[in-house]
Prior knowledge:
- By secondary structure, this protein is of the alpha/beta class.
- It has helices spanning 15-26, 56-70, 94-104, 106-122, 143-163, 197-212, 217-229, 241-252, 255-265, and strands spanning 6-9, 30-35, 48-50, 75-78, 125-130, 168-175, 236-239.
- The chain has one domain: Rossmann fold, CATH 3.40.50.
- 47% of the residues lie in helices and 13% in strands.
- Keywords: Oxidoreductase.
- GO terms for molecular function: oxidoreductase activity.
Amino acid sequence: MTNKLVALVTGASSGIGEATAKKLLTAGYRVYGTSRRGAISNQTGFPMLALDVTDDSSVEAAVAELIRLEGRIDLLVNNAGFGFSPAAAEESSIEQSKAMFDTNFHGVVRMTRAVVPHMRRQGRGRIINIGSILGVVPVPYAALYCASKHAVEGYSEALDHELRTQGIRVSVIEPAYVKTKFEANNIEPDSKISEYDGIRAKLVGVVSEAMATADEPEVAASVVLEAAQASQPKLRYTAGKTARLFKLLRRFAPASVLDKGIRKSLKLDTKG
């Protein structure tokens, strides 16, 4: 058992998850990461638990193991997720839609249901969900991803209302483009339509350009730590300049200005 605050970070083998785990470790947390493979060679600094957020039994087993080892959990960071390569909404099957939501949204739900009883017994806890600015400002050719992150936004807000009287607070972090392996692991649409071939190819180039100047994972990780340590945590935190700009446009700009700005950033026709 430990007197340190205990943190569990899903999807911690690389990217935002790994950066977050390391940031929390430096801040004095007892940190456990998770990945579907469990322990990974050359992984240093924090132990890894095998966990598949799409599997009820796997989630329950990993949380039970953490409680066995530490006796408590003070912070859950729901980071595990994946995206699709640029595609029109009609190019992805219902099966792909279900897979997207099963990881990006239902994974958050499974993890939350597994840890809340322990946090409630403790009378305190923090849950931080890694969302996306695209869950607030949706863009074309990423409809399913935007929808899954929009679901995380709504779930997080409702959950924070429910749990704050139990001493548990919920926050959602909203990054934009981040330099991770996330893009390399994107799934191609399984129902491609030839009419979209040109725009798909063009958008791959646009995204590649954006990734060249994207934020490092540590930018989002620093915001996670800020939310975790805040005495009065906010519900939503943007991470990085691009995300803050999009959030400001959503809040203050006329809808027509935001609409044209989105299409211009993706190099789409701004007419209509």
